[in-house]
């Protein structure tokens, strides 16, 4: 095995809200419950460019999603649920842009041993990297915040669809939406979604039972009329009025409903059906088990530990790996944008400029 170096290359935030490849970044030192992963592939998320442009102070390693090979196992392995060991292929996510020693756009990344997905042999590194932010967010939103029943940990094929378990995935062609459709379908849900017409085949193929054009002003009313019992939704855009569209799509006859949103709750959406439809914000970084602040919001120890324990069902307990190995999920549709750290900034510009539709931008390291 090659020795682990003391320094590495990484994409790091600079003083002027840009980021560049630094060549002398210390290789992260894992704490006793963490592993060190040699990164082999990245998938890109809107949060990466938002951290560069807005959130990250200088000196933070950028990047959340990764896949790669474990090069140092957790020192306190006996305290972990997971049994990942040196040489295993894993994927996961960290809060890139928040720390000087914890970001995925680097040659090595450290992360909690219980928070990685063991990749089945049939899942290649690029596809594996898509599970990060998008997959974990979909799992947290659907099964923790909306409290849908989890997919089976033992079934080896997709279950029958249960028409009584309905969920709306607003904006199903997004990276989070694609994962949400697949996971909800694996849980036996009847999935209603929206997307541009060019992506209708994609979302149907991922398991949606019905798809509508989100740009058609009649869509919320159409969905609400067809599904008077629809009470749960995940809004995968959550800005520019989509929260209200999701609220208006829920059935008129429900006495309680919930829309989970990925960005700040919008006041006009909250005002639409007060006391009936709750809007709940979810933020995936809470699953990482570290108390932190984000803008004006603070997330304390109790919440981050509860959210970590929940996502461990998908990571350390193996639900993501099982669903992948049995072909019940297959990750995002890929868009390959080259390789190496130098290719990351131009690839992130595609996301920022809205030039990505129904695809996940991935790069090999
Ligand atoms: N809170 C959290 O923890 C969390 C986690 C993950 C993501 N996010 C946020 O969630 C958002 C989505 O992230 P992502 O990575 O899933 O997105 P993405 O894949 O980059 O989104 C691209 C897709 O957005 C769709 N889209 C654009 N405008 C739309 C609209 N007005 N209505 C419906 N769909 C629209 C497009 O669909 P068509 O091509 O079909 O038109 C396109 O396929 C971002 O703002 C991200 O920062 C938050």
The helix fraction, in percent, is 25-40%
Q: Low-confidence stretches at least 5 residues in length (pLDDT < 50)?
A: none
Q: What does the overall shape look like? A: globular
Count of beta strands: 17
The major pleated sheet works out as: 7 strands, mixed
Tell me the number of structural domains.
2
Radius of gyration: 20 Å
Domain Enoyl reductase (ER): 13-299
InterPro entries: ADH-like_C, ADH-like_N, ER, GroES-like_sf, NAD(P)-bd_dom_sf, Trans-enoyl_RdTase-like
Protein name: GroES-like protein
GO molecular function: oxidoreductase activity, acting on NAD(P)H
Describe the structure.
By secondary structure, the protein is an alpha/beta fold. The protein has two domains: 7-130 and 332-364, Medium-chain alcohol dehydrogenases, catalytic domain (Quinone Oxidoreductase, Chain A, domain 1, Alpha-Beta Complex); 137-285, Rossmann fold (3-Layer(aba) Sandwich), CATH 3.40.50.720. It contains eleven helices and 17 strands. Strands 3, 4, 5, 6, 7, 16 and 17 form a seven-stranded mixed beta sheet that branches. A six-stranded parallel beta sheet has the order 10-9-8-11-12-13, with helices on both faces. It binds NADP nicotinamide-adenine-dinucleotide phosphate. NADP nicotinamide-adenine-dinucleotide phosphate binds at residues 45-47, 133-134, 137, 171, 173-176, 195-196, 199, 214, 236-237, 240, 242, 262-263, 282-284, 351, 356-358. GO terms for molecular function: oxidoreductase activity, acting on NAD(P)H. Residues 13-299 form the Enoyl reductase (ER) domain.
């Amino acid at each position: 095995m090659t020795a682990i170096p003391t320094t590495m290359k990484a994409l790091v935030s600079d003083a002027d809200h840009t980021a560049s490849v630094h060549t002398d970044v210390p290789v992260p030192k894992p704490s006793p419950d963490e592993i060190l992963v040699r990164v082999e592939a990245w998938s890109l998320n809107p949060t990466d460019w938002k951290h560069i442009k807005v959130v990250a102070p200088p000196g933070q390693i950028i990047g959340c999603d990764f896949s790669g090979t474990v090069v140092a196992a957790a020192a306190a392995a006996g305290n972990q649920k997971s049994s990942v060991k040196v040489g295993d292929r894993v994927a996961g996510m960290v809060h890139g842009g928040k720390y000087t020693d914890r970001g995925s756009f680097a040659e090595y990344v450290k992360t909690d041993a219980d928070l990685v997905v063991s990749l089945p042999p049939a899942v290649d590194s690029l596809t594996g990297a898509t599970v990060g932010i998008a997959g974990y967010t979909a799992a947290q939103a659907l099964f923790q915040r909306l409290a849908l029943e989890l997919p089976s940990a033992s079934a080896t094929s997709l279950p029958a669809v249960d028409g009584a378990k309905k969920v709306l995935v607003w904006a199903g062609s997004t990276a989070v939406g694609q994962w949400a459709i697949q996971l909800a379908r694996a849980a036996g849900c009847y999935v209603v979604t929206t997307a541009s017409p060019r992506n209708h085949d994609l979302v149907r193929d991922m398991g949606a039972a019905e798809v509508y054009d989100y740009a058609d002003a009649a869509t919320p009313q159409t969905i609400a009329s067809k599904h008077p019992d629809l009470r749960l939704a995940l809004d995968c855009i959550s800005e520019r009025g989509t929260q209200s569209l999701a609220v208006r799509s829920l059935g008129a006859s429900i006495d309680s409903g919930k829309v989970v949103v990925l960005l700040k709750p919008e006041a006009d959406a909250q005002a639409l059906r007060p006391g009936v439809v709750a809007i709940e914000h979810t933020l995936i970084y809470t699953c990482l088990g570290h108390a932190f602040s984000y803008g004006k919001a603070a997330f304390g120890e109790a919440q981050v530990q509860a959210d970590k324990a929940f996502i461990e069902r998908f990571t350390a307990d193996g639900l993501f790996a099982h669903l992948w190995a049995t072909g019940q999920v297959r990750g995002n549709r890929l868009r390959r944008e080259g390789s190496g750290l130098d290719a990351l900034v131009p690839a992130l510009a595609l996301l920022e400029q809205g030039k990505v539709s129904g695809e996940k931008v991935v790069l090999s390291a």
